[in-house]
Hints:
heterodimer; A: about 150 residues; alpha+beta; five-stranded mixed beta sheet; about 35% helix; B: about 700 residues; seven-stranded mixed beta sheet; about 20% strand; globular
Amino acid sequence: MIRFRLNxxxxxxxxxxxxxxxxxxxxxxxxxxxxxxxGLGICGACFVHVDGxxxxxxxxxxxxxxxxxxxxxxxxxxxxxPVQRMLIEEQAAQCGYCVTGIVMTAAALLEREPHPxxxxxxxxxxxxxxxxxxxxxxxxxVLRAGEADD
Amino acid sequence: MTELPRDPAHxxxxxxxxADNPALSRRIRVREDGTVDVHAGKVELGxxxxxxxxxxxxxxxxxxxxxxxxxAAGPDxxxxxxxxxxMSVQVAGSALRLAAANVxxxxxxxxxxxxxVDPAALMVHNGLIGDGERTxxxxxxxxxxxxxxAADPGVPVKAAGQLxxxxxxxxxxxxxxxxxxxxxxxxxxxxxxxxxxxxVRPPSRGARLAALAPxxxxxxxxxxxxxxxxxxxxxxxxxxxxxxxxxxxxxxxDERDTLPDENDLDTFLRRGPHETIVVVDDGADAPAxxxxxxxxxxxxxxxxxxxxxxxAVALWRGADRIEVWSHSQGVHxxxxxxxxxxxxxxxxxxVRHVEGAGCYGHNGADDAAFDAVLLARAVPGRPVQxxxxxxxxxxxxxxxSAMTADASTTLDADGRLSxxxxxVFSQGHTSRPGYAGVPGLLSATMRESGPAYPAPVDPPxxxxxxSGRNALPGYDLPRRRVLGHRLLxxxxxxxxxxxxxxxxxxxxxxSLMDEAALEAGRDxxxxxxxxxSDERGRRVLQTAAKAADWGxxxxxxxxxxxxxxxxxxxxxxxxxxAEVEAGSEIRVPRLTIAVDVGRVVNPDGVRNQIEGGAVxxxxxxxxxxxxxxxxxxxxxxxxxxxxxxxSQVPEVDVTIVDDGTDPSVGAGEAAxxxxxxxxxxxxxxxxGVRVRDLPLTTEAVVAAIDRLTN
Lengths: 150, 710
């Protein structure tokens, strides 16, 4: 049995500890915000926070989060996170499949660096792929989220 | 006031989609709470169509757009075929507009009867009909208004000046769910009792299953085999994924070489046999004394590379009752294709649309739906969700065809173009379900005695061609000869990918225009304007050039290039100016675009589509190429099939040209060709070297420089 905190609540899972965290989140806990894109940790659609770091949940085995704090997009904030509000303001998505993973990485960036410049945002998001071509809108949205006062 | 001025674009013939589905109730139903259900015939692909259709319905019904509830396409809604070809706003939008105007008129007539007044004296405001003294709502009248009637094409729709939702940046209805992470995609569907399925594809094209040893799978997992089709079904997703690998390891395949040489697609595309498509032939030869400029341009196979692998859910309720949930572009054609593949009556298969990730053409969605049907057949009464792997998504989805084009033109003594000749060689650009009279579903071909996969076809001239799409330049040219050559032997499945042949054809035409301008000693913009009498075309070219400050001096290694086309020769006008930085690799810092899509329903939606189309085209143009050996596709993940990353994406500046008088046309495919051409022309301007074979990788640029210097 693996015990961990999920969006602030103590949880346990009895599935095979080698199961990718993504399947546990989606199928055991019904949290659909992290999405399967490649299964190889390359595209970014499945990112969640593990102890505050944005990581791919598709190649993170369940056993590796024992005793750790997992946060998904559903538990990121009380209501929409500023990054999400600005993404909606900027209409910064087309199909939107990649966007929750990008929200997680952008939120982790703003946690570390509340007012990043454009180059920093681009660098932080560079391991995320978006096929619809909404990247520039997303960068603008994250910059706007970072303009808020502390 | 029901006496509305007639929209000049409105004819009394019903739009095609309405003629095919005349009953008002098939599209629009008023609910007791005052909301209005609009049953979409077109599907949301990430392009924002549901929002645009809601705006159109809100306008004609005189209700707030927030009261419109868009219902995804399915068996209960209108059959509007496939959501493709940038036709949704133009055709389905027109049908919905007229249907909504009919619904409004029928409600007004019912109110007039109730009050014994002239309908012309009544007004409608946000779903309330009134005569100045009293009001009655759509909801109150709903029980008294029969919508099971055919639309009357004579009912007037509103003129441009009377529209309150059209032309506004209404935020996308679907984006909050997608950004907040609420379940919305087909991947998120979890029906009661649902099982998970995975398909085990052959290791290569043309492989036949020789033997299957008993695979080591858990007792809860069912292995399905039908000819060369293999799959697994079970309750635990991770266990199903592992079981698929166990089945893969247990299978022995007979393999053979079936694929062309990836480094010599030119020979493959020219070898034939071909079907010849005459786009135009003026029957006159070029003047022999004029200067001839000729070149060959090409692109490789290109993948859809959507962010999510294809997915579907199927449920066998009985031997002749199958329900399917799919992100297909056409749920009605898909249901007919599935039924045909199984030898069932068309009404035996009900397909409902559920949104998937971005769709840019005929991808694996329909194939995945049939996979789900084949797997669910083994577990009657249980829904089965199939999800493709990333590897299968990148290697087994249909590709946009490789193409090669010989283009030549002549310049007369005055520097005017005196002839134009063009031959494009390509596989066909559609193999959608039901095409060429066969199901067109991947796994159907793998079943025991399943049908072979015929060569993909091309849409006819009325559909805007496939290989020949945009092969005819929009310029004022004499002595034109434009031919398409569609390959009839196609070992790699190709089908519709955003803009079909237009991407390469516009790249070729606009590259040759620049080469001719250089030969004539003319500025590329002025050279184009000198051969273009279409005022709307001139306007987008001039607008983009002005916004990009065309002609400004640039530092060494930088260049500006321009590209222009009217999509399909009758759709959106688009001009692109690309700024390119040619260092160790080609970078595109900025694209400046002007577009004319006629009357705009949602300006930000148009901008988003143009930006996205331009960025995707930049990715195709700079880095994308499907790789394969003689047996199998080898570009199977994001490292072997890279696409543009955040740090490589250009800033895109879009200007919309709209004087409100021209009918709406689609925006989704307008930017692809002009963007590629602008980038190619900018590279030539920056380096003095023209790269004619896409993509414009460092290797391709170096090879072009070597050819020039040797």
